[in-house]
């Protein structure tokens, strides 16, 4: 393997892992608060189409990324109102949000199909970003660095900050947190909005960096992988980072096999590799530990009813 090919593979792994990492970190914070939102795929699609549309109109990809975060948070607010205020079933509402996001993104994105826009470029000088060696560190999209910093920030927030401790307490025992005066619903609302913003940001990575264009169902089910990553990582940010890059490597394997013309595998099999890996990882976790969900927050998915 030549050095150039090795560097290209590493760059491709980082590119494939970043949207999974960002969306999974957002979902991790949501689940740490005791809320299960299965609508990540729908929020990613809404973020992807919004980011692309705004970037196309304004000509500024960074503005599109910010708009994608806002759109993802707005979609998450619908889920929050239904599940936290109206106490609808979280699983059913999350699935409905994915269906809603898929349909809305297709409708809003219809005028933009086949159109390209200016992608988010490197943040470092071209002399570093284009150098054959240094581009491993300096040639990535800004969102790659955002994902790494976000991992560190979420880890610090949950482990070393007082608000993070309160959020974890709400996820472990909402009634106990409520009894000592913590606003459980407010905390969960904020967590859900943050998760939506991160899903939107992860979604716009596809339309503003990888393509950069819009196509219906652009995220191709990656939101489900992001949800599985949270379980795979046992709700730990560092493991989410490792898992995202592991799945990024699996996705890269598919792309490299196609590029090399390895026809002894059916194309459909190669395309299914990330999802087969998701099922395999979850099966190994379930078989290897009694009750793989023991690391999950105790109140995950349970509605909160404030007592007098």
TrEMBL record:
GO terms for molecular function: transmembrane transporter activity. The keyword Oxidoreductase does not apply. Keywords: Cell membrane, Membrane, Transmembrane, Transmembrane helix. InterPro entries: ABC_transp_permease (IPR001851). The chain crosses the membrane at residues 6-26, 38-57, 63-84, 91-113, 133-158, 189-208, 269-287. It comes from Aurantimonas manganoxydans (strain ATCC BAA-1229 / DSM 21871 / SI85-9A1). Its main location: membrane. This is Ribose transport system permease protein. One of its GO terms (cellular component) is plasma membrane. It is found in: Cell membrane. It is a multi-pass membrane protein. It comes from the Bacteria. It holds the Pfam family BPD_transp_2.
């Amino acid at each position: 393997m030549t050095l150039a090919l090795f560097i290209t593979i590493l760059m491709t792994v980082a590119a494939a892992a970043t949207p999974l990492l960002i969306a999974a970190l957002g979902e991790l914070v949501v689940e740490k608060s005791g809320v299960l939102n299965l609508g990540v795929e729908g929020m990613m699609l809404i973020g992807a189409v919004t980011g692309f549309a705004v970037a196309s109109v304004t000509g500024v990809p960074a503005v599109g990324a910010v708009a994608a975060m806002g759109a993802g948070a707005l979609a998450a607010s619908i889920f929050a109102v239904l599940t936290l205020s109206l106490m609808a079933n979280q699983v059913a509402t999350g699935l409905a949000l994915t269906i809603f996001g898929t349909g809305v993104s297709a409708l809003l994105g219809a005028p933009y199909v086949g159109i390209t826009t200016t992608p988010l470029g490197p943040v470092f000088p071209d002399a570093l970003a284009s150098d054959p060696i240094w581009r491993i560190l300096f040639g990535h999209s800004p969102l790659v660095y955002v994902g790494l910093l976000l991992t560190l920030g979420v880890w610090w927030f949950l482990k070393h900050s007082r608000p993070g401790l309160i959020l974890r307490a709400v996820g472990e025992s909402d009634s106990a947190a409520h009894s000592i005066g913590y606003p459980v619903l407010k905390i969960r609302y904020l967590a859900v909005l943050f998760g939506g913003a991160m899903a939107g940001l992860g979604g716009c990575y596809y339309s503003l960096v990888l393509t950069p264009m819009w196509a219906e169902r652009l995220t191709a089910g990656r939101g489900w992988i992001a949800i599985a990553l949270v379980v795979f990582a046992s709700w730990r940010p560092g493991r989410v980072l490792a898992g995202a890059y592991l799945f990024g490597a699996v996705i890269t394997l598919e792309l490299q096999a196609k590029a090399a013309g390895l026809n002894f595998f059916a194309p459909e099999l190669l395309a299914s590799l990330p999802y087969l890996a998701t099922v395999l990882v979850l099966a190994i976790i379930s078989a290897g530990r009694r009750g793989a969900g023991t690391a999950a927050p105790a109140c995950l998915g349970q509605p909160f009813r404030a007592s007098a």
